[in-house]
Amino acid sequence: MTEKNLLKLGFFGVFLGCLISFSACGSDSSSSAGGNDGIESSDSQEDGSSASQEGGDNGSSGSTNPSSNSNSGSNSSSKQEPKSETQSSKEVLNPENKKVTGTCSASPSKIKKGEIATWEFLRGGDASFLDQIMAPFKWSFTNAKTESLQGNGLNVVNVRYENSGTSKATLVVDGNEIQCEPLQVQGVPITITSCEPTSKTANAGETITWNVKATSESKIKGYSWSSTYGTAEGSGSTGKMTATADMHKQNVTAVVAVTNEDNTTENYTCTPVTVIDPNKVDVTFVEDGDEQSVPTNEPFVAQIPACSDPYNGATACTFICDTHSTTGEKAKVVIDNIECSQNDATYVQCSLQPVAGQKISITIEANVSTVGCRVSKY
Q1: CATH of range 283-377; options 2.70.98, 1.10.3470, 3.30.230, 2.60.120
Q2: Nearest by Cα to 299 from 369, 201, 196
Q3: What topology is assigned to 34-61+68-75+83-186 in CATH?
Q4: Deepest of 152, 243, 297, 340, by most Cβ within 10 A of its Cβ?
Q5: Where are the domains of the chain?
Q6: Are 190-276 and 283-377 equal in CATH topology?
């Protein structure tokens, strides 16, 4: 092979190597939540864009889901490399073009005192990834070891917190100011064992009451009550809310936030209460009428007939249900929060004399989804 051909082959190899290297460069972490490929300044410490959760706590809900209650503690599921604190870039910040905007939050959203939280910016709007990596980032923090950080393209930062309490972060990216979702830093833990209502059901217009039980080695200093169903108010460990007609047949709950003197806060979702509006009739019974299918294990409103006795004028009605039990378990009927007697596993009857002619709340507890019920005279 001639020297000229060898030279051409060498140039081709260099060109191919550059193509391979170029295709591996750059990624857009901000296009999906939780991405870990964000670009930091060259003066940031290693792991500055990490979303590691070592030593963190994902926190509890309120949620709303009622099953999401939890107490302080670490939820690390696997051993990860320790995160290092991010340092500000020494480079000159690029001009602000007002193009880049988005949201920012910490991961995890709850940590222990002394741990590191990772703050991440997620791009929104019409700005491109190139606009983001060229944009100047200016971070500022409350109650953190580091008060501020800055750098071009600095979309992910690691910050240590040595004091407990609620901490906030503000980001000015490309000249646009963003308030980040707050971070909760936990100190002395709080244990919440229960938050129970005084009654499983409530009629519209009545007051729903919950009582929470919480303990901590640091004195508990406050309770804050809230609900997505209405206005919840509290006096210490007791929370209250008024049931309304709009809540008819809904399982209404509240969330209590308990705080101690070390500024630890724990949220807990209380056991729900079923609200019934007595004016919204679900089933109407008539004297000696046909059997009607009604739901079990949830309250419903029934219109009860007057059931007058033609001989002495007294009311005389019996509520009868065939529970169709296949396991031998006894069913029970609760009328206006009063449980009536039960006969056997397949047949329940209750006197309706006190509530004849009224709209009443009835709950039938049975191991089947529906039962057949009727009102019999006498």
Answers
A1: 2.60.120
A2: 201
A3: Immunoglobulin-like (2.60.40)
A4: 243
A5: 34-61+68-75+83-186, 190-276, 283-377
A6: no
Instruction: Report the DSSP pairing between strands 283-284 and 300-303.
Output: parallel
Whole-angstrom distance, CA of residue 314 vs CA of residue 297 = 32
Tell whether the model's pLDDT for residue 31 goes beyond 60: no
Cis peptide before 272 (omega within 30 of 0): no
Q: Is the peptide bond before 66 cis (omega within 30 degrees of 0)?
A: no
Count of Cβ atoms closer than 10 Å to residue 124 Cβ:
12
Question: What does the longest C-alpha to C-alpha distance in the chain come to?
Answer: 127
Amino acid at 25: C
Provide the β-strand partners of residue 111. Answer: 56, 185
Place of tokens 């006197």: 351
pLDDT exceeds 60 at position 291 = yes
Residues in contact with 354: Cβ distance below 8 Å, sequence separation at least 6, in sequence order: none
Q: Is 336 in a helix, a strand, or coil?
A: coil
Closest CA to 221 of 193, 262, 188: 262
Which of 26-35, 194-203, 306-315 shows the lowest mean pLDDT across its residues? Answer: 26-35
DSSP H helical ranges for the chain:
3-23, 129-134
The predicted-structure confidence for 347-371, as pLDDT tens digits, reads as follows 777 877 777 788 888 888 888 888 8
- Would you state the pLDDT for residue 309? 65
Pairing of strands 201-203, 273-276: parallel
Q: Looking at domain 190-276, which of 2.40.70.10, 3.30.210.10, 2.60.40.10, 3.40.462.20 is its CATH number? A: 2.60.40.10
- The number of CA neighbours under 13 Å toward the Cβ of 230 is 20
Strand order in the sheet with 148-152: 148-152, 136-141, 169-173, 176-179
CB 138 within 8 A of CB 180: no
